[in-house]
Amino acid sequence: MNSHALKRRTKEFAKRIIELCRLLPNNREGRLIGNQLFSSGTSVAANYRAACRGRSRAEFIAKLGIVEEEADETLFWLEMIDEMEVTDKNAVQSLMKECDEIIAIMVSSIKTARQEKKSR
Predict the structure, then answer these.
(1) Structure confidence by residue, pLDDT tens digits, 62-109
(2) Share of residues in the chain with pLDDT > 70 (%)
(3) Residue 54 needs a FRET pair 20 to 30 A away by CA distance; which of 6, 16, 66, 82 works?
(4) Dihedral sign of CA atoms 86, 88, 93, 99 in order
(5) How many CA atoms lie less than 13 Å away from 70 in the CB half-sphere?
């Protein structure tokens, strides 16, 4: 997957996270989880864009690490919403699947970038 396609994919993921946050209940639980989810979920796309603008291979790798961390945190909050049955399970499970895939892509990209750095 090229960087332009992944930028689009992470941006669409962020938009879906925002849509899910809109569905969360307007109570303490919904607001607190929603704030955390909103922050980490939209950060995935923003930090991937920043990684693509990295000035060096080391900076690129470091920023991809941030993307991986934010995606993993997002997955945690999605799991909490799912397990606590806070909102519609179908929407949450679809986002969990996409988040898993994004994490796998980031892990693979980091490994590849590290190998390329060593071979230079």
Answers:
(1) 999 999 999 999 999 999 999 999 988 888 999 999 999 999 999 999
(2) 99
(3) 16
(4) negative
(5) 23
Instruction: Check residue 27 and give its pLDDT.
Output: 95
pLDDT in tens, 31-67: 999 999 999 999 999 999 999 999 999 999 999 999 9
**Beta strands in the chain, from DSSP E residues, in sequence order:** none
- What's the token pair of residue 96? 């969990």
| Amino acid occupying residue 33 | I
Q: Are the CB atoms for 111 and 74 separated by under 8 Å?
A: no
- Asked if 40 contacts 74 with a C-beta cutoff of 8 angstroms, the reply is yes
Domain residue limits, the chain: 3-118
Residue whose tokens read 């991937």: 48
Which residue in this structure is represented by tokens 């997957």?
A: 1
Tokens of 105: 């892509």
